[in-house]
Amino acid sequence: MRILVVSDIHGNFPALRAVAAAERADQVLCLGDLVDYGPRPAECVGWVRANAQATVRGNHDNAVALGVPCRSAPLYRRLSEESRRLTLPLLSDEDRSFLAGLPLRRSLTAGGLRLELIHAAPDDPLYRYLLLTDRQAWERAVEDVDADVILVGHTHFPAVLRLGRKLVVNPGSVGLPRDGDPRAGYAVLDDGEPELKRVAYPVEETLRALWEWGVPHDVARGLEGIYQTGAPPPPGYVR
């Protein structure tokens, strides 16, 4: 069985469309953060609703749907708050109800594997920022998770971590990579074997929609830099 795993789409529909065109899979799993930052959130929500067999809620989905803070890091807070203000009018009541109704975690079996889907971390599914480079922390985090493969997002850094018989996979970010590679990131589980993948997409289409969207100029410039470089903006770049 071939499973496509996507996460952190963040309203970047051209990137999501490129991933969908690049892969043919038996199932699609989504690890949350469909919205915020990017200018085409409704199309992203619509695609996930139509194509994903299982989806969990991310902290940005939670903020948009419930009107609560998403607890972004200071460097991203203004980008998130200003883009969220313009995201809300683009989503239907049905879209927001879908986001609000997403579970915080999901357990399922596919291809003979027990999978656990979580946006952030097992002990804090919405907010904990835990890179897979922290092996000891992840060993503690998955002790009580009864699964063969734990799928997580949130950090925007793709990685695979083997912990004994358990495998932790972060597919990275489809729509807003921060690891220095601006291409859309995702993962494929092919008969249980993980592969981290990237695909180029027409970033100029996203940038055009971003500048037409109406976010403040400094926010557009900050997001533009991330889209073009796949790296965070420098401190102080956004006021």
Provide a quick synopsis of the model.
This protein is of the alpha/beta class and 239 residues long.
Keywords:
239 residues, alpha/beta, Purple Acid Phosphatase, chain A, domain 2, 5-stranded mixed β-sheet, 10 strands, 35% helix, globular
- Could you state the CATH homologous superfamily of the domain at 2-105 and 171-229? Metallo-dependent phosphatases
Task: Please name the CATH architecture of the domain at 2-105 and 171-229.
Answer: 4-Layer Sandwich
List the quaternary state of the chains: single chain
Summed over residues and divided by their number, the pLDDT gives a mean of 96
The main sheet orders its strands as 3-2-1-9-10
Question: How would you describe what is shown here?
Answer:
The structure is a single chain. With 239 residues, this protein is α/β, with parallel strands linked by helices. It has a domain at 2-105 and 171-229: Purple Acid Phosphatase, chain A, domain 2 (4-Layer Sandwich), CATH 3.60.21.10. 35% of the residues lie in helices and 21% in strands. It is built from 8 helices and 10 strands. The chain has helices at 13-22, 41-51, 59-66, 74-87, 93-101, 135-141, 203-213, 217-229; strands at residues 2-6, 27-30, 54-55, 105-110, 113-118, 149-151, 159-163, 166-170, 184-190, 193-199. The strands form 2 sheets. Strands 3-2-1-9-10 form a 5-stranded mixed β-sheet. Strand 7 and strand 8 (166-170) form a beta hairpin. The longest helix has 14 residues, at 74-87. The mean pLDDT is 96.
